[in-house]
From TrEMBL:
Keywords: ATP-binding, Membrane, Nucleotide-binding, Transmembrane, Transmembrane helix. It holds the Pfam family ABC_tran. CDD domains: ABC_6TM_LmrA_like. This is ATP-binding cassette subfamily B protein AbcA/BmrA. GO terms for molecular function: ABC-type oligopeptide transporter activity; ATP binding; ATP hydrolysis activity. It is found in: Cell membrane. Residues 27-307 form the ABC transmembrane type-1 domain.
Length: 591
């Protein structure tokens, strides 16, 4: 307990560096809690006065009785307002933590998400923020109130009668020592439960995101078994926690009973001997509940604080993530992206993934590669040769380990990130779409007003107008989660229409037609041909169709350029492009 609390408190303080805590509300709640504590401590004393005066047939007990009623009313009112203020401050802190966590996550480098489960990250945002907010606000104030009650009760009781106070707090100390191992075990279980919940969230997120793959491969039973194992683990942890919590109840009950019986026996003898008033004995009996309640609150707080330690550690990891910006973005003198199109050039670039590779599987080693404004470049090569990695470097999803990528004379790392990416359009093989309507997807990420005429022109240019017009609700037709209500070709054409509206200067195409049938590929290529006009275009492809129209072909292998030149020139050589072209020609001849 001694080691856990400071570590947890330090973690919670670190979390609070990133968000604003409503200290005014908590201060007001603290003052009201002091009034509540004073009322709770004064209640047994006023009761003692009433009992003693009533027992002596003294009619002046009416005054203390009225005072007791006023104290109880004031204490209850202060308690209610304090609880509302702490609950409100906790909710505000929870909301602020969620916003701060999401803000850091959406601005985090892509590399962070390469090794993080989306389901686990979601669990952190939803569950961990709530756990931390509750401990800092509501649980923290309740623990402070409990500590004040214990200290106040000890002072009052020892000042009133040291013998009875010793018996009462001796019983409390025994109860605390009995509960402490149980509470620490509960804390460890709570931490394991949080971790298992995050793993389950990650698994469920993966299942539902790829439910078609699950069904295609008949993996329903496999996924059910995996989820069942996680659920069984959570069930076992829950049962273990329930057993421990159930054991706490008789410990508290026995300690209260022991204290009560002992005080009644000892106090009764003293009342009979005339060394103790019946009112004082009554007050001590009432103080038993005043002491035991705070003890239970403090032990519960220790458990929750320990559980919150893991949550705060995960949140600090996220909140301390450096945003996907750099010194240039933070500096006041950051250079603006040139207004006119410039040559994009790789110079001595070296890059390797931190874990040794990713789905692209390649490191990059490019001494010199240029993309002139308005030209079309195709990147070809076997899977894992570094084609998509090269696009990721241009997008600044990753930074080169060595070397420079220049736009004109400027290093792109020295350009404001938002301005740089605003110049780039990206069309991927599996078109990402957001849940919503076709209009929502067309205008996604576009922060300027877009008129209906512009939307209509973009649909026409991307060969999308006909199929959109045939939909029941036109542009307002829902696309479903990840666009599942549209075909692959329709999604690609919507992505191309979005690029027309975005109007990028540099266009990156990553296998934009590889998963489409010939008819849809033809329509998409028509839209792409119009989209590429006048832009610096870099496309990754395994198809040879249309490569003869490229200004240059760059063949990559193991992250290195093995040939680069115009299509006609490369066809005369014996390199990768010629082999690809002959292989494609042979396949078409067989077909």
């Amino acid at each position: 307990m001694i080691a856990t609390a400071p570590a947890s408190a330090a973690g919670l303080r670190a979390v609070l560096r990133h968000v604003r805590l409503d200290r005014l509300a908590l201060a007001a709640a603290g003052v009201l809690t002091l009034l509540e504590v004073a009322g709770t401590l004064g209640f047994p004393l006023l009761t003692r006065s009433i009992v003693d005066r009533a027992g002596a047939a003294d009619a002046s007990w009416h005054g203390p009785a009225l005072m007791l009623a006023l104290v109880l009313l004031a204490s209850a009112t202060a308690s209610a307002i304090a609880r509302f203020l702490t609950a409100r401050a906790g909710l505000a802190l929870d909301a602020a933590l969620k916003e701060a966590t999401v803000e850091r996550l959406v601005r985090a480098p892509i590399a962070y998400f390469d090794t993080s489960s989306s389901g686990a990250v979601t669990s952190w945002v939803v569950n961990d923020t709530k756990a931390v907010a509750q401990v800092i606000s509501r649980e923290g104030l309740a623990a402070a109130s409990a500590a004040l009650l214990l200290v106040g009760a000890a002072i009052v009781l020892f000042a009133t009668d040291a013998g009875l106070a010793g018996i009462l707090f001796g019983s409390v100390a025994l109860a605390f020592l009995a509960m402490l191992p149980v509470v620490l075990t509960t804390a460890r279980i709570a931490t394991r439960t949080q971790d298992e919940t995050a793993r389950l969230s990650g698994r469920l997120s993966q299942i539902f995101a790829e439910v078609r793959m699950v069904k295609t491969f008949g993996a329903e039973a496999r996924e059910q078994r995996g989820v069942a194992a996680s659920v069984a683990s959570l069930f076992a942890l829950g049962c273990r926690s329930a057993r421990i919590e159930a054991a706490l109840s008789p410990i508290v009950t026995l300690s209260v009973t022991l204290a009560m019986v002992t005080i009644l026996a000892y106090g009764g003898m003293r009342v009979a001997a005339g060394t103790l008033s019946s009112g004082t004995l009554t007050a001590f009996l009432l103080y038993i509940f005043t002491v035991v309640g705070p003890l239970a609150q403090l032990t519960a707080f220790v458990s929750r604080l320990s559980a919150a330690r893991g949550a705060s550690a995960r949140l600090i990891e996220v909140l301390d993530l450096p945003p996907e910006t750099d010194a240039a973005d933070r500096a006041a003198a950051a250079a603006a992206v040139p207004a006119l199109p410039q040559i994009l050039a790789f110079e001595g670039v070296r890059f390797a993934y931190a874990d040794g590779g990713d789905s692209d599987g390649a490191t990059i080693a490019i001494d010199r590669l240029t993309f002139a404004p308005g030209t079309r470049t195709a990147l070809i090569g076997p899977s894992g040769s570094g084609k998509s990695t090269l696009l990721g470097l241009i997008e600044r999803f990753y930074a080169p380990d060595r070397g420079t990528i220049r736009y004109g004379v400027q290093d792109i790392a020295a350009l404001p990130l938002a301005q740089w990416r605003a110049r780039i359009g990206y069309v991927a093989q599996s078109t990402p779409m957001v849940s919503g309507s076709i209009r929502d997807n067309l205008l996604y990420g576009i922060d300027r007003p877009v008129g209906e005429q512009q939307v209509a022109e973009a649909l026409a240019q991307s060969c999308s107008a006909t199929f959109v017009a045939a939909l029941p609700e036109g542009l307002d037709t829902p696309v479903g989660e990840r666009g599942v209500l549209l075909s692959g070709g329709e999604r690609q054409r919507i992505a191309i229409a979005r690029m027309f509206l975005r109007d990028p200067e540099i266009l990156l195409l990553d296998e934009a037609t590889s998963s489409l049938d010939e008819e849809n590929a033809h329509l998409v290529l028509q839209g792409l041909d119009m989209l590429m006009r006048g832009r610096t275009c870099i496309l990754v492809t395994h198809r040879m169709t249309g490569l003869e129209t490229m200004d240059q072909i760059v063949s990559l292998d193991a992250g290195r350029i093995v040939e680069c030149g115009a299509p006609d020139t490369l066809l005369l050589g014996m390199g990768l492009y010629r082999r690809f072209a002959h292989r494609q020609f042979a396949q078409e001849k067989i077909a």
